[in-house]
Amino acid sequence: MNAKPDNPKHKPRWNFPAILQVAVHIAACVPLALLVLDYALDGLGANPIQAITLRTGKTALVLLVLSLAVTPLATFGWRGVVRLRRPLGVYAFGYVALHFLTFIGLDYGFNLAFLRDGLIEKPFALVGLAAGTLLFPLALTSTRGWMRRLGRNWKRLHWLVFIAAPLAIVHYVLQVKADWRQPLLYGLAVAILIVLRIPAVRRAAAQVSANFRVRRSRVGGG
């Protein structure tokens, strides 16, 4: 007896949003794994504390920018990325916490007097502390349980990210002594992503995306 041909309707389909989510978890852990490996192999250079501080800070900023990009990408039709917002934000805060603990622990030995003087002498540290403080309640309330408890106030609270992100850019700019190109590029990215959240701009972007998809479907349909 001949085997029946496979029914196309019953072929397994890839769950790309779930794959993306797993990829985000793996990718977010890679910088930490590499940092630990470099530490174990004595590969952090002459100033390991500075290397740890810079690497955790930059990773936190990258993840924060990516979390801000989720809603604009969804507006342009990539709705599968919406579920990535929470893990990106939580990992960003995780690296912020490591960044802060490196500063107060490894750099200042948890000495509050030295830390107070350091914050006064280094404005970039004070700005960074403000950004991290704003991100803390966002990470804490990122679960669905907190969304239910806070109701409409949840969205209002999470608008703090649009203050924290520019503060993180200012923190980066103030820390850099010579080449400002990289922090300014991050700043430009954050500015564009914030502008795309303005209701009028967001509606216009959604309309452009919808028109593009319609044209593409017509061309594909022949």
Quick description:
The chain is mainly alpha-helical and 222 residues long.
Provide structural commentary:
With 222 residues, this protein is mainly α. It is built from ten helices and no strands. It has helices spanning 16-40, 48-75, 85-107, 112-121, 123-140, 144-150, 152-158, 161-175, 181-195, 199-220. The radius of gyration is 22 Å and the shape is globular.
Chain-wise SSE layout:
Elements: H1 16-40, H2 48-75, H3 85-107, H4 112-121, H5 123-140, H6 144-150, H7 152-158, H8 161-175, H9 181-195, H10 199-220
From N to C, what is the helix and strand string? HHHHHHHHHH
Count of distinct structural domains: 1
Q: Flag low-confidence runs.
A: none
Shape: globular
The counted number of beta strands is: 0
Q: What do the pLDDT scores average to?
A: 88
The major beta sheet can be summarized as: none
Counting DSSP H or I runs of 4 or more residues, the number of helices is 10
Helix content: over 70%
Beta-strand content estimate: under 5%
Radius of gyration: 22 Å
Q: Which structural class fits the helix and strand makeup?
A: mainly alpha
N- to C-terminal distance:
40 Å
